[in-house]
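User: Can you model how adenosine-2'-monophosphate sits in this protein?
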Amino acid sequence: MARSAILNVMVEAAMKAGRGLTRDFGEVENLQVSVKGPGDFVSAADRKAEETIAGYLRKARPEYSMLLEESGAIKGPDSQHRWIVDPLDGTNNFLHSNPMFAISIGLETQGVMAAGVIYNPVTDELFTAERGQGAYLHNRRLRVAGRRDLVQCLLCCGIPGLGRKHHEKFLTRQRYVMAEAGGIRATGSAALSLAYIAAGRFDGYWESRLSPWNIAAGSLIVREAGGFVSDFEDRDNMFKSGDIVAGNEQIHPQLLALVNRA
Ligand code: 2AM
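Assistant: Here's the modeled complex, given as structure tokens:
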């Protein structure tokens, strides 16, 4: 597969930051036994990864705007192009020495996702997509799973922790989905959950109260793998609502209906 120059920059940025995160991940394992835990160390690792990525992207396209998890919105002279970056998606996993985390880099052009990269440096899995060009895991073309019945499906959701509200709503939704689905998992990383949908490892995914940087790259990767992505109102408004449902053509509407039954 031929990657465009801009996708190559995104991949390079993700890989470079990934090397740093992998080193820091090793250190986090050592810090688990300390009473204070690795919290401050992880915050620093997160910021460092973001600086690395932003540096690469800025060098390649100095005029583009940015939306970064740590640094927020940075308006460039070109507001039609925007990088949307989560340097460490699945922070809580990383903090607990759990290797389910990823770097997520998206490029939005005139309000539409144009390219996306999700990279887990521990498993060395690189998910990429460009609008109209398909989705890939390294050089292998991805396609969402083909299951049609929820009873056969392995679904994925985001479970809100103590810091996130609306636990009751989540539990109500969970009850409806549990009654219909073959199985449910949670990865703790929205970016990887979407990448796994694209790779056919999960058949459906829903989560609420996310930020654009968690889902920018992943939403494109799912769509380029032939999947469907929307918010809970079946609109392409996930960045504003923070809610997301993903799956194949059959599973997406079924999961959407269950999520909305609550
Ligand atoms: P993060 O690691 O970049 O914060 C976990 O279900 C997913 O939710 C992760 O992708 C995590 O991204 C995201 N998330 C968004 N807001 C969150 C919050 N307030 N607390 C924990 N995870 C959050």
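A couple of observations from the model: The pocket of adenosine-2'-monophosphate is lined by residues 69, 86, 89-91, 158, 161, 163-164, 188-190, 207, 210-211, 214 (CB under 6 Å). The chain has a mean pLDDT of 97.
User: Helpful, thanks.
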